[in-house]
Amino acid sequence: MSPPLPRHKIATRTRLTEVRYEIRGELARRARELEAQGRRLIKLNIGNPGAFGFRAPEHLQHAIADHIAQTDPYTHQQGLPEARAAIAAFHKARGTPNACPERVFVGNGVSELIDIALRALLNPGEEVLVPSPDYPLWSAATILNDGRPVYYKLDRDNGFLPDPEQIESLISARTRALVLINPNNPTGASYPRALLQRIVEVAQRYRLLLLVDEIYDHIVYDDAVFQPVAPLAGDLPCVSFGGLSKVHRACGWRVGWAVLSGDPVACGDFHHAMDLLGALRLCANVPGQFAIAQALHGADTIGALVRPGGRLYETRRALIEACAASEHLALVPPAGALYGFPRVVGPAAQGFDDHEFALEMLEQEDVLIVPGTSFNVPYRDHFRVTLLPEAPVLREVFARIERVLARRAEQAQRPSAVA
Predict the structure, then answer these.
(1) What's the 3-state SS for 262-317?
(2) ω into residue 308 within 30 of 0, thus cis?
(3) Rounded to the nearest 5 degrees, what angle is found at the Cα of 58, between the Cα atoms of 57 and 59?
(4) Taking the complete model, does pTM exceed 0.70, yes or no?
(5) Strands 175-181 and 127-132
(6) What is the DSSP letter of 133?
(7) For the chain, which terminal residue's Cβ has fewer other Cβ atoms within 10 angstroms, N or C?
(8) CA distance linking residue 328 with residue 348, whole number of Å
(9) pLDDT tens-place values along the chain, 419 residues long
(10) Which residues contact 307 (CB under 8 A, 6 or more apart)?
(11) How far apart (Å, rounded) are the C-alpha atoms in residues 85 and 91?
């Protein structure tokens, strides 16, 4: 009998040490442990509508059910022809240049397509301009495809809007692409047309590929207006990302798309690279693709939710009112998307650590939030919550947050703390 082999750990990729995704990370793992102990948690860490009682619209469910017998085979690596035609028609109607089915890619959610796009683009050491705060997948996908994220600042004193001049100052000979997230996750900012035009002009001067995450395109509040980037970009190559997960509340279906616009000659090699990478994974989930045409050209089911009286609107109102009533919180009211990004201020902010606070909220108040540093920012005084629960639930969450921050403020103001 042979002696047992010595224990040997499998080495992992070193670049993974540079990647963070706290939305489903350490705190979420601790939350699962607490739930296994019987604790009832309010989890505000993920923009996952189905977990809060939302359902994908019935006409989309029927579109899948009616075609289920046709979903067994692989389809084209870029997606079902009829789904790509529906996406192209939608983008053509809103002014996307050269919108046609051949330039549409359907993926297993936008997440997969972001990875494919960056893998098709980047050589080792090349740079991508990414917002800070960002949705952390953008940073992770850049790093794991051997690129380097370079962060441009979304300044809360400017409503979390980007500064075109600061973006331009960061461009180097190795810069390949510029990422825009609009409406923004995690801040909820919605970018006005004039600002986007200035950013496009910067990208045009340096021939940067625009990578535009527009997954929240129809989730805007009050007088905010969503402005797609591709119509402003014209011949400049641009990839516009969208999907069913947020506007249509169908996260688990894993249906996203990317539309490549701009000069066909300039985009040719990149198009072929994305097609090759799509072919290597054979194809995206087929059943969900049958819902795309109905989602984009059927009844509007998001408008009522984001107008006054609608569930998302009223939960957003609860967030704004809770922060306005607190002496410990400041908020740039979200104009779009599904999140709020409050800042801790005043005495409660003394020595404040967002991860420590998030752990305290979880362990002591049964609330799961996301620390602001998870979104690749240098400061530690913000946190993110989702707007998906009912308004009374969010009010209860902020009552618990207020208790914790009040204790912190009291401790900070004690003479011993000052000494």
Answers:
(1) CCHHHHHHHHHHHHHHHHHCCCCCCHHHHHHHHHHHCCCCCHHHHCCCCHHHHHHH
(2) no
(3) 95
(4) yes
(5) parallel
(6) S
(7) N
(8) 6
(9) 677 767 778 888 888 878 777 767 788 899 999 999 999 999 999 899 999 999 999 999 999 999 999 999 999 999 999 999 999 999 999 999 999 999 999 999 999 999 999 999 999 999 999 999 999 999 999 999 999 999 999 999 999 999 999 999 999 999 999 999 999 999 999 999 999 999 999 999 999 999 999 999 999 999 999 999 999 999 999 999 999 999 999 999 999 999 999 999 999 999 999 999 999 999 999 999 999 999 999 999 999 999 999 999 999 999 999 999 999 999 999 999 999 999 999 999 999 999 999 999 999 999 999 999 999 999 999 999 999 999 999 999 999 999 999 999 998 887 764 44
(10) 313
(11) 10
User: How far apart, in Å, do the first and last CA atoms of the chain sit?
Assistant: 68
Instruction: Tell me the CA distances in angstroms from 258 to 13, 47, 111, 252, 357, one per residue in order.
Output: 28, 20, 11, 18, 37
Helix (H, G, I), strand (E, B) or coil at 90: helix
The type of residue at 328 is: H
> Per-residue pLDDT tens for 2-53?
777 677 788 888 888 787 777 677 888 999 999 999 999 999 998 999 999 9
The SS3 call for residue 259 is strand
**Structure-block tokens of residue 249:** 């509340």
**All domains of the chain, ordered by start, with CATH?**
14-54+304-414 (3.90.1150.10), 58-297 (3.40.640.10)
Report angle CA 130, 18, 334 to the nearest 5 degrees.
40
Which one, of 124, 101, 105, lies nearest residue 113 by Cα? 105
Q: What is the dihedral of CA 267, 271, 273, 276, to 10 degrees?
A: -170
Q: Tell me, what DSSP letter sits at residue 73?
A: S
Q: Report how far residue 316's alpha carbon sits from residue 222's, in angstroms, rounded to the nearest whole number.
A: 11
